[in-house]
Structures are given as structure tokens and as C-alpha cells.
Amino acid sequence: MGVMPVKRLIISMSLPMMVSMLVQALYNVVDSMFVAQLSEDALTAVTLAFPMQNLLISFAAGTGVGINALLSKSLGEKRFDRADDAANNGLFLAILTYILFLLIGLFGAGPFIGTQIQDALVREYGTVYLQICLCLSFGAIFQVTFERLLQSTGRTVYSMISQATGAVINIIFDPILIFGLFGAPKMGVAGAAAATVMGQIIAAFIGCYLNLKKNEDVHLSVPQILHPSAEVIRKIYFVAVPSILMMSIGSIMTYAMNQILGAFSKTATAVFGVYFKLQSFFFMPVFGLNNGLIPVLAYNYGARRRDRIREALRFSMTLAVVIMLCGTLVFHLVPEALLGMFNASEEMLRIGVPALRIISLSFGLAGACIAMGSIFQAFSYSYYSLIVSVGRQLVVLIPVAMFLASFGEVTLIWWAFPIAELVSTILSAFFFLRLYNRTVKTL
């Protein structure tokens, strides 16, 4: 962290996570492709379940950001006992997170889907899918937590092994359980959910094993996990809560967009779901880059290495923007082929082609914002990211989308995304320069 050339360090830290997240993006796309073969109703149902699934990941990943920041900073300061405390208290928080979403799965899945659509068949599909994903969500939660521990100590190759294995298992069992291949029961939408949680649970066990056997910088202990420290939890959540809120805002946004688009047609909602799957091919690698950058920044901040922080930020921001501009190019050149992977009808193509082209105009700006946001998380200023996210998705995106929807043309709604991203870029740049001048320049 402190001696390897910065560019090589970031690549070595980020590349495994970028690869694993690309595999995860592939899973997301393949999963929906198989569901789309059932019917457009099934694809719509999975889309309606996405906001709650995203909320689950927001809690797990947001808490992971808090663990990551405290653990990496403690290692940079050579405070190894605090690093162990961060890891063990983080696992305790993962247990509490699972209990929360187990209760939501048991009692809230049906009502949640019902608030978004009245179609009985879509509601049935969505409820079954969401209940399975939430009630067995301990796999997803612990998978994310164990991966964060590996990332925090620079063992991103092991993190890649965990995540990629889970995603590959998911891809393999999707068609088997959805369509009833090789003697398995034909489960339909429920099969997609079962394959999802199966991959997550196996990935969680692999992550646990790798931390116990390969991660020498943290020492996990069941007695410590079951006897949490209020002070350590406070420090974790000081960084984690803004990150949780920031990521959860995405759930509110997708929930609201589902309702706005649902007023036009189920197909418009399905298009929005397909877009979210496709964009993950480009956003996921950038998030992987971001996850690799955060511990590098946190460590060198603790070690007071201004030169390495500056070089890391410059390199990562350039790489993030280039990746996202590649996404813009692909979405503009072959939108029909992308939608065709989801068994798109003529109506879906009519709505989806302009949607992909318009929304992707914001990708370059989004890459810059994600890279700038890494310093907020690494230096424990996550509330800056929260303000940016609220501004983009709630203050701008949803109101603008509602306004454009009032003209009665669904194509206009997609312009809300570039408009919101422009506002996000302005806010991100303001906070980035403010924080950079106050912290990095004074090291």
C-alpha cells in the first residue's frame, strides 16, 4: 500500500474486483435474459423486486464501506488491534442486517410489490421472487462483508474468487431451475431467485474460508463477534450510515421510476429494468475501481503520503471516464442488439432504443463523479457523497422525470438522467475541491 508504484498498485487492487464485478454484471444480464424467455410479465416482476434487493445490498455494502475505511486506516496507522475490532464488529452488524431483511421478506414482500402494480400475475411472480431473495439473504450479506475484509487488506484476488464463483454458480443453475433441466423441477421465476441465493450462500462460505486461512491482517473470533463494541460500531456507522443512505436513495429512485413508467405501460417498466442490467457492464467495473481505490487512499492518508494520493486520484479518474465513455459508444451503436438479448418485442424496441441512447449520454459524467466520490469515503466524509446522491436522484431526477412524463411521451422521461448527472458533476466537483484543499494539501 505504501511502497508499490501507485498505478500498478491501483491496477493490482482494482483489477480483480473489476473482473469479479464484470462477472457479476454478466450474471445480472444472463439472469434477466432467462427470465425474459418466460414472459415479459416475468421480466417486469423481477424489475419491480429490484428496489428492495438494491436496498438490501445498500445496507450490506454501505456497512462494508464503514468497515473498509476504519480497517484500512487502522492498518496504515499500525493499529492492528483496532483493525481486528473493525472486522469482528462488522460481522456482528451483518447478523443484525440479515434479521432485518428476513422480517421484511416474511411480512413485507407482497405489499411492496403490490404498491407498484395491480396486475395479479406480475404481483404473484414478484412476491415469490422477492420473498426467496430476502428470506435467504444471509448469503448476500455475508458475501459482501467477507469480500470487504479481503479488499481492506489488499487481498483483492481472493475477493474476486469469492464473488466470481458465486456468480458462475448462479449462471449455471439459472436455466436448470427456471426451466427444469436435467430432472430438476421447473420453478420459473422462483427458480431464478433460488439460483441467486444459492450462488450468494456458496460465495459467503468461500469468503469466510479465505478470511480465516489467507487474511493474516485480521483475526476473526466468534466471542468478539458476539460481544460487540459500541465505540467501534459508532466509528463504523459514522462512515457507513451516509453510504447506506446514499446507496438506498437508488432504491427510492428506481421505485419512483417504476411507478412513473408504469403509468405508460408494463413494457416501459421492463425497458427500465433491462437498462439497469445492461448499464452494469460499465458501472460495475468502475465501482470495482472505486473499491480498489478507497483502501489505497485511506492507507496513504493515514501514512500522510500526499504524492501517492494525488497520483492515485488522477489515474483513477481518467480510467473511470474512459470506461464509461466506452459504454456510451456501445449503447449508441448497437441498442437493438442489446435489447434483442432480452427477447424484446417491437414495442420494447420502440421504447428501449432511444432510452439507451439518451441515458448513456450521462455515462462519462457518472464515471468522473464515482471517482471523485472515492475520496469522500476514504477520508470519512461520506456525507458529501450522500448530498450528491440526494441531489442527483431525488432533488433533480425524479421531479424532472415527473415533469417530462406530464407531456405524455415516454421518450422524454429518459432525458432526466443526463440532466441529473450534470447537476451531480457540479456538486461532486465542488465538494471534491473543498475536501482536497482542506486535507490532501495540508499533509
Question: What would you say this structure looks like, in words?
Answer:
With 443 residues, the chain is mainly alpha-helical. It has one domain. The protein is built from 18 helices and no strands. It has helices at residues 6-38, 40-76, 80-107, 109-114, 120-135, 138-152, 156-179, 189-214, 222-225, 230-262, 266-302, 306-333, 335-340, 346-359, 363-378, 382-405, 410-413, 416-438. Helix 1 runs parallel beside helix 7 (156-179), helix 2 (40-76) packs parallel to helix 6 (138-152) and helix 11 (266-302) runs antiparallel to helix 12 (306-333). The model has no long low-confidence stretch (mean pLDDT 90).
Mean pLDDT: 90
Could you estimate the helical fraction of the residues in percent? over 70%
**Count of structural domains:** 1
Q: How far apart are the termini?
A: 17 Å
Question: How big a fraction of the residues is strand?
Answer: under 5%
Summarize the biggest pleated sheet: none
Low-confidence stretches: none
Structural class: mainly alpha
Radius of gyration, whole Å: 21 Å
* Count of beta strands: 0
Order of helices and strands: HHHHHHHHHHHHHHHHHH
Report the total helices.
18
Assign an overall shape: globular
Quick rundown:
The chain is mostly helical. The protein has helices spanning 6-38, 40-76, 80-107, 109-114, 120-135, 138-152, 156-179, 189-214, 222-225, 230-262, 266-302, 306-333, 335-340, 346-359, 363-378, 382-405, 410-413, 416-438.
